[in-house]
């Protein structure tokens, strides 16, 4: 693989840009692999990357029914933070956030990580108490967050209205090293590195069945034929229920549509990410100048990647109240993704009832921020067959045993 | 936009008038049941990509709970029926079969 650098740009500028290589290969599938991963979203690709990098397992295929990064990884609003309440969550999200800090250098691919700071507004007294608790928890967990006053919020976000009539701003939970990254680039960067390690990324290939023998996985049926494998990782987000059904088990997961939208591009006006959980909306500004906006999930099971209009209306109503200057902005694009929601709003990184079959799902509305940490933990689980410290609490049997990792109160909106 | 006919008051309700209530026809397992049944009742969901039976409430109308048969992959609605039914009624099943010949009731 030729490295990207300023020298490469200069060289190619002289050379009519003839020398750029394809970022990844499009191979024909082999008959079998040491490990097969279903789903080339961020989590699947990161799993493959750390299988190769941390565990030396490189005879790996990543099978994708559409195009890589075309699922939720390419549809999210790219918020990265690790200010969760429960210890297992803080551990994995902070691992991910810290890996993001140097991921561009590591992958030699600019993922545009921008730790611009992130605010979660408190607009009710209940929220004030909740966030103060989170700040204390974060301090104990080694996650740097602080509680800030409304005046400081106004300093950081001049376009905000802190004394609105309904929900004045009472303060905020502030994570200075939270922020955003370029979502596609995260998928592309990992894909390029995986391909460079000799892994096969097989796009336009849908897994349609899972073959087993004596309770162990032996391979997968796909639209490009049968592919054998010694280990299987299911990393398909919204389609987890469907693929788990093929593997013979059921999950505590439901698939819902989550929408986002962007405005026309405007001059820079807000250089932090702001989340307003009480009124249900959040916003940041992309490098292109678009205001990137999201809200809550739709309420019913849905696989169509489009959502209901009234949710958009509710989100915008909330944000206009918080940021009056956006009331005249035109919205340019709106889309949906299918998110996999668990009962405690925490992910599943787990062994399954099927031998040598592992699952990573349930990231729901907030898994972009977790991609590097999740891939790290899932690779560890797949390589050793047992979860390491990051994944240990996220097994699928925690529901049965009542060991919830309850983040449902901590995350009022979907991000 | 999702539109469902309320089987009680007959109103053609648009989704802002309705509240979704999750998977229908769950069989309740309580104290004394075994762990597998209890776990499945509490947490495991069919979450199908295709035909799905759901609970809905006509929240901003007559207030009643009812059930709906819907396709989660296309948003097609096959019909609605009263909540006091333990399984999908025959006419709804026939309507689904007419539209989805490969489908089986599980
Ligand atoms: C609108 C929206 C906003 C969001 N905002 C944020 C945010 O601000 N911050 C944040 O942290 N998270 C956010 N999220 C959540 C985040 O996008 C997801 O948690 C994350 O991208 C999941 O990544 P993944 O790799 O698990 O899934 P995906 O990227 O969806 O990848 C799964 C892949 O599996 C493939 N697949 C499925 N079935 C099969 C099959 N049978 N055979 C082969 N391939 C298959 C799919 O085609 C897909 O490409 C948001 C999500 C949405 C929809
Ligand atoms: Zn009614």
The stretches of 5 or more residues of chain B where confidence is low (pLDDT under 50) are none
Rounded mean pLDDT score of chain A = 96
State the largest interface: A-B, 21 and 26 residues
Count of DSSP H/I helices of chain A: 11
Q: Helix count of chain B, per DSSP? A: 2
Arithmetic mean pLDDT of chain B: 95
Distance between the termini of chain B: 28 Å
- Outline type of chain B: globular
Number of domains of chain A: 2
Which CATH class of chain B?
Alpha Beta
Largest sheet: number of strands, sense, barrel closure of chain A = 8 strands, mixed
CATH architecture of chain B: 2-Layer Sandwich
CATH fold label of chain B: Folate-binding fold
Order of helices and strands of chain A: HEHEEHHEHEHEEHEEEEHEEEEHEEEHH
Beta-strand portion of chain A reads: 25-35%
What would you note in describing this structure?
The complex is a heterodimer of chains A (415) and B (106). Helices cover 29% and strands 26% of the residues of chain A. In chain A, helix 2 (42-55) crosses helix 10 and helix 3 crosses helix 10 (371-384). The radius of gyration of chain A is 21 Å and the shape is globular. In chain A, strand 13 and strand 14 form a beta hairpin. In chain A, the strands form three sheets. In chain A, strands 1, 2, 8, 9, 10, 11, 17 and 18 form an eight-stranded mixed beta sheet that branches. In chain A, strands 5-6-4-13-14-15-12-16 form an eight-stranded mixed beta sheet. Chain A is an alpha/beta fold and 415 residues long. Chain A has two domains: 25-82 and 84-92 and 183-252 and 344-410, FAD/NAD(P)-binding domain (3-Layer(bba) Sandwich); 118-180 and 255-342, D-Amino Acid Oxidase, subunit A, domain 2 (D-Amino Acid Oxidase, Chain A, domain 2, 2-Layer Sandwich). By secondary structure, chain B is an alpha+beta fold. Chain B has a single domain, classed as Folate-binding superfamily (Folate-binding fold, 2-Layer Sandwich), CATH 3.30.2270. Chain B contains two helices and six strands. Chain B has helices at residues 35-42, 90-99, and strands spanning 3-5, 12-14, 19-23, 51-57, 65-71, 77-82. In chain B, the strands form two sheets. A four-stranded antiparallel beta sheet of chain B has the order 3-4-5-6. In chain B, strands 1-2 form a two-stranded antiparallel ribbon. The model of chain B has no long low-confidence stretch (mean pLDDT 95). Classes of the chains: A alpha/beta (415), B alpha+beta (106). Chains A and B meet through strand 12 and strand 15 of A and strand 3 and helix 1 of B. Bound molecules: flavin-adenine dinucleotide and zinc ion (ZN). Chain A: Residues 36-79 form the Rhodanese domain. Chain A: It catalyses: sarcosine + (6S)-5,6,7,8-tetrahydrofolate + O2 = (6R)-5,10-methylene-5,6,7,8-tetrahydrofolate + glycine + H2O2; sarcosine + O2 + H2O = formaldehyde + glycine + H2O2. Chain A: GO terms for molecular function: nucleotide binding; sarcosine oxidase activity. Chain A: Its main location: cytoplasm. Chain A: Keywords: Cytoplasm, FAD, Flavoprotein, FMN, Nucleotide-binding, Oxidoreductase. Chain B: One of its GO terms (molecular function) is sarcosine oxidase activity.
